[in-house]
# Entry
Amino acid sequence: MSADFITRILGMIFFSLVGAYYGGRLAIYAGEEASLYATIMALLGALTGLIITPIITTRPVKAIRTRLTQVSSRKLVAGQIGLVSGLILAALVTLPLSRLPEPFSLFLPSLAVLLFGYLGTYVFVARSTDLFNLIGRQERSGVGLLDGATSRSILMDTSVIIDGRITDIARTGFLSGTLIIPRFVLNELQYIADSPDSLRRQRGRRGMEVLAQLQKDPTVPVQISDIDVEGARDVDDKLVILARQLRCPILTNDYNLNRVAELQGVPVLNINELANAVKSVLLPGEPLSVKIIQEGKEAGQGVGYLDDGTMVVVEDGRSLLNTEAVVVVTKVLQTSAGRMIFARVNGE
# Structure
């Protein structure tokens, strides 16, 4: 049985008893038969309890629970610190307020507790980033209070886990911060690993192995978080919403997710863009050594590849198939899929 059903039954019983009690009291004042009034009021109470009990019990609890799952740990800690600070200030203020003449001494202390509690929570949550940055600077000076307070969070997409290059990139130290893997990303990865399609199943299992390597590496902080996003079913949508709430970037190599995130103002760390950025720069006229391994689309063309995977199309290179040739770069073309180099055989 669900919680809503149980609360409806309990609420119906409670409100029917209340209705029967006040129905009997009303019958005494009206001089009528008590059983009739009690029965009518009990039925009305039962109907009222059946309708409004979830509205005043389980639904607010669900709303609060959903809201708490969407709040980052920093804001939760900052809110608790702010609440305690506000209540301490309120305790100092309520003592002189309680000595005021009535009616001020009756309501001003309670009002002060509510006001300072709210202000403390609001101020500390609003300035949580500055607070943790300050603590982090003190930590680097040798007087820190919290470990890793300044390290930012980076949300990981399923595609970047399956890709596998993240392990090597993370070990270099270029990714400063904690790699956060939401539970819904892990569930998607497990779903891919259990797919009946052999290719998808192989990709999913590879992602599981990459994730295991990341967790075993002490130099790479990895955290699997249970934080979820209500109201969104697609994993990409959840990642974008979660990144906006946590104010952190998304690590991915998915082109569509990259575009959607950029349109919504979410920073993206794209591994494919990083790979293209660190490739060696070649200018027209520079010599290049490449092994021609296949024919090109056009007549007489040969195709080879550099160590980083860049395709080199060699004009009139078909005659040099399966040989190492020195070519001269004629044009470098940057496409959405990567970089392509056009060259001709040296000496022609």
About this structure: The longest helix spans residues 3-30. Residues 182 and 229 are 10 Å apart (CA to CA). The chain has a mean pLDDT of 82. The radius of gyration is 33 Å.
